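Recap from last week: sequence in, structure out.
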Amino acid sequence: MISSTQRSLGHTFARDYAETQGFQLGRPVSPIIAPDGKAVYFLRAIGPRNSRQGIFEFNLADRVTREVITVENVLGSSGNRIRSEETNRDQHEFSGASGFLSFQLSKSGKTLLAQLGARLLLIDCASAAFRELPIAGTPVNPRFSPDGSLLAFVKNFDLWIFDTATNLEQPLTRDGCEAISHGSAEFVAREEMGRLDGYWWAPDSKSLLYQESDAREVEVLHIADPFVPQRPPERRFYPRPGKANVKVRLGVISVKGGRTRWLKWDSSKYPYVTHVDWHIRGRLTICVQTRDQREIVLLLADPESGYTVPLLTENDPAWLNLDQRFPQWLKDGSGFLWSTERNGGWELELRNSNGEFRNTLVAKQVAWHSFVYLNESENVIYFLAQPTPVERQLCRRNADGSIIVLTRDLGVTSAVMGGNPLLAVITRETPASLARSWVQLMNGAIVGELPSVADTPKLTLNTELLEVNAGEVFHVRITRPSDFNPAMKYPVLIDVYGGPRAQIVQAAQRGWLLAQWLADQGFIVVASDNRGTPGRGRHWERSIAGRLGRLPIEDQVAALRGVGARLSELDLDRVGIMGWSFGGYVSALATLIRPDIFKAGVAGAPVVDWLDYDSHYTERYLGMPRDKAPVYAANSLINHANRLSRPLLLLHGTADDNVLFSHALKLADALTRAGNNYEFVPLCGFSHMVPEPAASEQAAEFFRRHLGGPCLVGKARLVQASPAMQ
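Predicted structure tokens:
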């Protein structure tokens, strides 16, 4: 059994994990390389348990890091003023950070643009002197014009510009309102397409392209947090599957105002705008997509007339993944880079300016992951690849077509490049280390490390990565207790996500920490990436179409059995499953339909009925409800609620604005009406990402009660069966 000392240490870790945001507070994020290559700017929390971010500069000449600006510089030392002014919840995403959430460097590299709540600041890079711009209200998504003389931003549902020399602001669009807004990306573009912007500067700084979003036909949901009844519900235009989406159109307007010139395309066939690029040579391209997401078209647009012509079309019988880094135009406008899965895996192509295919630059065998940088002067492309699904390495494609792997040790890499001379900020996570970032010349010389002030977790890791051949080859993460005893049998916890666009089995320590903490409570934690997850090619990922829950569960069972056949310490008669979000959905469904395997389940913030999730995500995998009613029914937890025969714990934040709290309420209602017992812990006031240590501790205690602890082989198991298990 678990000793009181171990439980005390476990509680300490859970608290530390929450307070440090997974030991990420204090690590450098969002690096930007100065154009002259003399400095790197980045954001960093000011302490390992303080979420307030400052803007820092790493000087390459003396390798000294200084804080460019702090919240106190702007607001003074009065702490009671900071919280109300520093957080701008109109930002496109909320990461749990506060203070400076983002910043921008002017094209000249001389000026920083930073936002603190409603305050917009211009900061001189050389002196760190700043001035607050006299802008009334709260500007959203402010950005420099290419020449640096103007700023654009969204305010009160309209697009505005601000002249930095005269301090004059003026609206470019008028009559914006909640239902018809100008300059902002709609919800599904931000949440599901990865398109965060709703306006784009012309290369000559004389005009802008902006989005008009007409939500008048979109269903309105009133989202309330029952924990805070005095707060009025939030009105949100939320397009559910099969229902009306926001209608989007794009128009060009002069910085002097006046008439908008609207772009013309068949928006009834291609209602989604997935990407916009306005090239330095003036070539304006937009990607548009059909509602069923099986076709996208890259259009070349004339900003003067608004007419568009297609450059290329992509089709997929299941769905098309989107890549926001492409097209990547050559500087002279003679062609562009394009990524595609047309041949069964991600490839990089070079196309002529008219869209014609020229040649394949990186073939699918290289396991392309994402684009980093194009060095046109040397005809060299830097990119990330996945030699195996658990790792990500920085690679270079040379002018002769050869591929060089620049980072070799097992781990997960990300990189930002730029400057003169060409520099890279490389961030690496490995099995031995949380994220570290350093500045490197492209000849391999390391200039220095961006300093971190993050805490180090006090855990002894006991994790290994395996490949298991169980019909399919699965990559599996096995986490044993730090004091593992090979003479013991351990109950098993399946740590699952299982859904599209995310992997949890990676050679990166960050994803191992909570698993190790759980293992130290007396379990062996097993995680595997089933079909439907990325990193294994088109067929592997598309297998999940129409089978969002059952296919992941089939694969999780197969991987579990494969591991159990190799490792005798796993007690396959005592298996629990747990996950959050999509993983919560899989956990709940597995507990409902496979009680022969899963003896207990913890479902955190599960999607319960896919008819209640957003249109772009859900229709991609399940189709339109009018055509696929049986598919939606089969994938709903509601329709399996009467099958519950094992202990089930539901956890859900009452203020969840992603998977709404109503999902958990619907499942609880269905389970109650079916006469089934379950446990439900509402996490009061929390949104989708829950740092509260009590949530993890609730799950651990639940599994201890229903699965018991480790026992000697051949001895009685230390578990008392609940009524649901008998």
